[in-house]
Design a protein that fits this description.
By secondary structure, the chain is an all-beta fold. It contains 1 helix and 19 strands. Strand 18 and strand 19 form a beta hairpin.
Length: about 280
């Protein structure tokens, strides 16, 4: 098994660095936009949660935390210059699969908001949020971008959650313990590791419908797992996917590892963990 990030979807032609001015006041609910090549980024604020919003020109995309088989640049969030921030957790809305001549990638087009859970060191004081965001924006080529963003978030600020952030939170895949009615369910995983064509077979149910249904798999320690391929659909929301373990994978490296499955569709999204026994 190899540790694989993969090459960029195209040649790295240009590095783009841009800055957004600091928030003008504690009550400000978003930073100014940081303009970049075919994209722009900003911070938005809510109660105990912020959002990193990336907006892209038509036809351009950015990546999920696992960029897919064709390679790519997952976003990187550096909060180390923030003040009064004890802990931070970035959440990822459900991504989509994109296929082209280079292969399959996983990510977002148009606009994406990454919700960010914030824990202040002192709840009575504002959080001075400072972020260095590294991400890729890609079309035929992939361009690495860096944005420096800042926003002061007042303590106990009472205001409505920005609509962009509220929508993003609704599209974050729910873990098994908090799965919502209608979210997809991973019903069974069947390892078929022997023979000339080893694979993992995943059976899933999409109770609200299987429009754009997909599954993405992540393994610990950077282990590479190919993207699943849909092999059957009964038309009633029961789908089967298979992961080909014959190329670039040693099935023995997956034995006893805990893998994470992210299940997505137009109607719901969830996460599930499983072990390869």
């Amino acid at each position: 098994m190899r540790n694989r990030l993969g090459p960029l979807a195209g040649a790295l032609l240009l590095g783009v660095t841009f800055l957004a001015p600091a928030a003008r006041a504690e009550a400000q609910l978003s930073s100014d936009w940081a303009e970049g090549h075919n994209s722009r980024a900003r911070l938005i604020a809510g109660e105990k949660v912020a959002g990193v919003e990336v907006e892209m020109a038509d036809g351009w995309k950015t990546y999920w935390r696992n960029p897919g088989d064709a390679g790519g640049v997952p976003p990187a969030f550096d909060w180390s210059k923030s003040n009064n921030l004890a802990a931070v957790k970035v959440l990822y809305p459900a991504p989509k699969r994109f296929s082209d001549s280079a292969g399959d990638t996983v990510g977002y087009k148009g606009t994406v908001v990454f919700p960010v859970e914030l824990t202040p060191k002192d709840p009575a004081k504002p959080i001075d949020l400072k972020l260095t965001l590294d991400y890729g924006v890609c079309r035929e080529i992939c361009i690495p971008a860096e944005a420096a963003l800042s926003l002061a978030i007042a303590p106990k600020e009472k205001h409505a959650l920005p609509s962009e952030l509220a929508a993003a939170l609704q599209h974050v895949p729910a873990p098994e313990a908090s799965r919502r009615p209608g979210d997809p369910v991973l019903k069974r995983v069947v390892p078929e590791l022997g023979g000339a064509k080893p694979r993992l077979v995943l059976e899933a149910q999409f109770p609200k419908g299987a429009g754009h249904a997909d599954i993405f798999i992540e393994a610990p320690d950077g282990l590479y797992v190919p993207l699943p391929k849909k092999v059957s659909d009964d038309g009633a929301g029961n789908l089967t996917f298979a992961i080909d373990l014959g190329d670039d994978v040693d099935p023995k490296d997956l034995k006893n590892q805990k893998l994470t499955a992210t299940l997505v569709s137009d109607a719901g999204q969830s996460e599930a963990t499983f072990s390869v026994d």
